[in-house]
């Protein structure tokens, strides 16, 4: 079984993403990738997992479920109102314990898929725990589970199921379900948790948990029950009504996870990526976000507090275009939060998230 090592963006190397391969070669490579055959032909979401440098289709019944030890490519195809043209968003998602080879392959395959679809998609990078609202909107439930390709998504019967603890947090449709270490100290009064033993599922409602979390948790359990042929029993427990001697606490060993995600915000700024001087340079041009600053002749990195955008001008040089994403990866390594969602779009492409940062 692969030994998991926590994803460290500051040590990552994604040179493949900014490869200087000839476009024709890229297109030929894209056309020979079996996974891309017939993708993007109708509205909907398609998901692929990277497994030992190969792209494999993710089962539709598992859409919305991601393993922290893997990397994925996600294509969303859609149409705008009163327009029959197919439009695309393509994301690569990096699990916290995904290997460097896997997420570099996911990044490269995202570019390849973009080429296959004639450069129409808007490209996005997503890192576990820092996903964009757009990405999460594709799924009724966004679930992160421990494990990866080496352990596989093995179907087990409820009778042989290993006890798992899930943390449910969010509001309305922005609900995330994340598997966390099965420790008693990981419960809190602000959120909802599921202790899943296979045949019996306990829903622990923290005393101050919001109604959306409680309702969506129950919906999620109904989905789990359907997957297990209705066998599991659900017990809903309100924190204020159960005693410290309740049986659920015997299922959770004492202790608390030491993991804590950073919620730091990045500095706002606009950076120009240009080779006008004879060599490719990135330069800060403003500490504010102003759409009027964008220039069709160059590439711009627009850093917001919780997201980063790469805007490619229609007149940008080939070298500027090819190295834009490499530059944003290098740029983020030195930011307070290098894991923020990244969106790469060309002049003329639409992105509500991009337009929102200028308001």
From TrEMBL:
SUPFAM superfamilies: Actin depolymerizing proteins (SSF55753). InterPro entries: ADF-H/Gelsolin-like_dom_sf (IPR029006), Gelsolin-like_dom (IPR007123), Villin/Gelsolin (IPR007122). Residues 58-135, 175-241, 289-354 form the Gelsolin-like domain. CDD domains: gelsolin_S1_like. It holds the Pfam family Gelsolin. This is Gelsolin-like protein 2 isoform X2.
């Amino acid at each position: 079984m692969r030994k998991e090592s926590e994803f460290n963006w500051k040590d990552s190397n994604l040179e493949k993403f900014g490869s200087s391969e000839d476009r024709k070669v890229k297109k030929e490579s894209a056309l020979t990738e079996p996974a891309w055959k017939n993708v993007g032909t109708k509205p909907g979401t398609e998901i692929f997992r990277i497994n030992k440098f190969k792209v494999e289709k993710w089962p539709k019944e598992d859409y919305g479920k991601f393993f922290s030890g893997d990397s994925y490519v996600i294509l969303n195809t859609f149409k705008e109102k009163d327009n029959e043209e197919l439009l695309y968003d393509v994301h690569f998602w990096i699990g916290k314990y995904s290997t460097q080879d896997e997420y570099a392959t996911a990044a490269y395959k995202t570019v390849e898929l973009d080429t296959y679809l004639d450069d129409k998609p808007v490209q996005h990078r997503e890192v576990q725990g820092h996903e964009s609202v757009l990405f999460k909107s594709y799924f009724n439930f966004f679930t992160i589970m421990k494990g990866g390709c080496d352990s596989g998504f093995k179907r087990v019967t409820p009778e042989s199921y290993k006890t798992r603890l899930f943390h449910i947090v969010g509001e309305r449709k922005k609900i995330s379900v994340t598997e966390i270490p099965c420790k008693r100290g990981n419960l809190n009064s602000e959120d909802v948790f599921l202790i899943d033993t296979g045949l019996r599922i306990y829903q622990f409602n923290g005393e101050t948990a919001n109604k959306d979390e409680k309702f969506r948790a129950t919906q999620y359990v109904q989905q789990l029950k359907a997957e297990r042929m209705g066998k599991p029993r659900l017990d809903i427990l309100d924190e204020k009504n159960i005693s410290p001697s309740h049986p659920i606490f015997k299922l959770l060993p004492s202790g608390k996870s030491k993991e804590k995600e950073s919620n730091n915000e990045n500095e706002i700024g606009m950076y120009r990526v240009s080779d006008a001087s004879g060599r490719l340079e990135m330069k800060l041009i403003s500490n504010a976000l102003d759409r009027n600053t964008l220039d069709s002749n160059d590439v711009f990195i627009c850093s917001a507090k919780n997201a980063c955008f790469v805007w490619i001008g229609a007149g940008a040089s080939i070298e500027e275009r090819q190295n834009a994403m490499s530059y944003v990866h290098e740029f983020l390594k030195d930011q307070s939060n290098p894991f923020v969602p990244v969106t790469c779009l060309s002049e003329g492409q639409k992105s509500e998230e991009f337009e929102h940062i200028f308001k």
